[in-house]
Amino acid sequence: MDYLDDDIKEEGYTPYTEYESLVVKKEQLLKLAGSRRVEYLKLFGDSMAEILKVKIDCIRLKKTIAYCTKFINLGEPVDTQRMQAEIEGEMQAYYIELKSMLKERDFAKAAKPIDEYDVRMAKQVFRRICKRLHPDINAKTGENAVLMDLWDQVMTAYKEYNADKLEELEVVLNHVMTELGDEGFVLNIDDIEGKIKKLEKQIQEITTTIPYTYGELLSDPEAIEARKQELIKELEEYQIYRNDLEETLEKLISEGGGRFTWQITL
Question: How far apart are CA 108 and CA 138, in angstroms?
């Protein structure tokens, strides 16, 4: 479900209120995109992770084959210890990518369903706080450690749609703003038209790219099933490719009279 607020131009509309509205809308779109990414990974994360694992196997095998072939063509023996060290060094970025995907997948699988009422309440409170505390609206937030810490807490609570926590933070914000008085809020109004155009461009980019665009697929059971089948087919194709590479490598090992093994630690 799309929980975005309707675009309503309030009474007393000005370029600044438009800017303020766009700042809030951007944050809401980013949150919605993140929620769609989580939902997508709940459905397809296991398949995506398995495909990535096999892809990494294929990359490692290809590098090994290329390394062995090079020395065989030169008529020189393959230093398996040196080969392993070099290839493993080159593979680290892929292992990091896999770890990141597995972590994100596990987070998505553990994420609890969110009640629609909690979502709407969290959005209402967040909108109020955002107009007073967002660094793009209040210039003082980025300069004041207390305000910046509050903003970080607000964003964490909003990511979880934690309405109760947001309401508590709003009370704290009221207290802090009262203590700071006039020094607690300074409008970020330089080049307001330029800022509006930049926000409009950012919003356009968010709404036309992944993961926000997952929304159409996630709302269509037939599209979900089709995507599952696509991933199954992709995995099978990579598994066949990996088997072919393993056979090629085994042949090189046999011809070279050497054997070598290594292990990935995740």
Answer: 33
Residue 266: inside a domain, yes or no?
A: no
Retrieve residue 187's tokens.
């409008």
Secondary structure class of 113 (helix, strand, coil):
coil
Q: Which of 71, 74, 95, 73 is nearest to 82 (CA)?
A: 71
Residue 242 falls within a domain, yes or no? yes
| Residue 262, domain member (yes or no) | no
pLDDT number for residue 191: 87
d(CA 163, CA 250): 59
User: What DSSP assignment string belongs to 48-74?
Assistant: HHHHHHHHHHHHHHHHHHHHHHHHHHT
Structure-token pair, residue 185: 């809020």
In a domain, 101, yes or no: yes
The whole-number average pLDDT for the span 230-258 is 89
Distance, CA of 111 to CA of 43 (rounded, Å): 12
**Of 12, 44, 33, nearest to 225 (Cα)?**
44
Q: Which domain holds residue 50?
A: 15-188+197-256
The count of structural domains within the chain is 1
